[in-house]
Amino acid sequence: MVKTTIIARVSDGLPLAASMDDEQVENELAEYKGQAKTIFKRLNMNSEPRCSIESGKYVFHYIIEGSVCYLCICDKSYPRKLAFSYLEELAKEFNMSYGNEVDKPGLRPYAFVKFDVFMQKTKRIYQDTRTQSNLTKLNEDLQDVTRIMTKNMEDLLWRGDSLDRMSTISGELKDSAKMFKDKARHLNLQALYRKYGPPVIIATIILFVLFIRYYWF
Question: What is the pTM of this model?
Answer without folding.
Answer: 0.69
